[in-house]
Design goal:
eight-stranded parallel β-barrel; 12 strands; 26% strand; single chain; binds the ligand O=C(O)c1ccccc1NCC(=O)[C@H](O)[C@H](O)COP(=O)(O)O; alpha/beta
């Protein structure tokens, strides 16, 4: 059985590494330099970095210089998220050298463009399915964007390679992942799923690992690492097979 991939998160707002609660603008706790955080996760043995431009996601500007600096400094694979919604932002994101990008709002608001870029870029494109209940949320998780399962069926048919599934109610809360949601999504798609939001303990990571046979490929970990609930070294050991 393949081991669960871990993706430590660096969410960037106004040039700083931050964590939000429920992804809400204004709920930031700041954790300093995004580059220092990313280098720390890399040194600790991460194989992936989940890097988010929150200003681009919220439409309050962007952190392109910081994102490029961090991506350029990484020897590990980078998954880039936040505000990638058209050709220009996609080209800029891919030009950083990241391994793949997450599209969120665009998958809800620009389905034809998303089908086109999935066809062009294959597994360099993942779609973030960010939900409250089973309702998708776009524009930095501030607006409803349709039904999870209808959108998933459409994206599957278009050849989407992978989904990053976030229960917004759990995100940044240290309340544990929504394992039921992950199971439900895995039951209706054969594409790999990356779990995001709520991880609070090594037991949470072990519980997500048990879903690898059902299709969960990875888990994003943010707040728990910054809050020092465990170290990344401990997390990597917990999911090693
Ligand atoms: O990813 C986005 O585009 C995004 C947009 C708006 C608000 C938050 C967004 N992402 C947050 C993350 O990806 C978190 O880093 C991740 O879910 C980790 O959550 P947690 O482990 O609960 O801190």
């Amino acid at each position: 059985m393949p081991k669960l991939e871990l993706l430590p998160a660096v969410d960037v707002r106004d040039g700083q590494a931050v964590r939000l609660v429920h992804g809400e603008s204004g709920s930031e706790t700041s954790y300093g330099s995004p580059l220092e955080a990313a280098l720390a996760w890399q040194s600790a043995g991460a194989e992936w970095l989940h890097l988010v431009d929150l200003d681009a996601a919220f439409g309050t500007g962007d952190n392109r210089d910081v994102i490029s600096e961090v991506t350029g400094a990484m020897d590990i694979k980078v998954e880039l998220s936040g505000g990638i919604r058209d050709d220009a932002s996609l080209e800029a994101a891919l030009a950083t050298g990241c391994r793949r990008v997450n599209l969120g709002t665009a998958a809800l608001e620009s389905p034809e463009w998303v089908a086109k870029v999935i066809a062009e870029h294959g597994d360099k494109i993942a779609v973030g399915l960010d939900v409250r209940g089973t309702t998708l949320r776009g524009r930095g998780w501030t607006r409803d964007g349709g039904d999870l399962y209808e959108t998933l069926a459409r994206l599957d048919a278009e050849g989407c390679a992978r989904y990053v599934v976030t229960d917004i109610a759990k995100d940044g809360t240290l309340q544990g992942p929504n394992l039921g949601l992950l199971r439900d999504v895995c039951a209706v798609t054969d594409r790999p799923v990356v779990a995001s939001g709520g991880v609070s303990s090594l037991d949470d990571l072990r519980a997500i690992s048990l879903l690898v046979p059902e299709g969960v490929e990875g888990a994003i970990v943010g707040k728990a690492l910054y809050a020092k609930a465990f170290t990344l070294e401990e997390a990597l050991k917990a999911v090693a097979v």
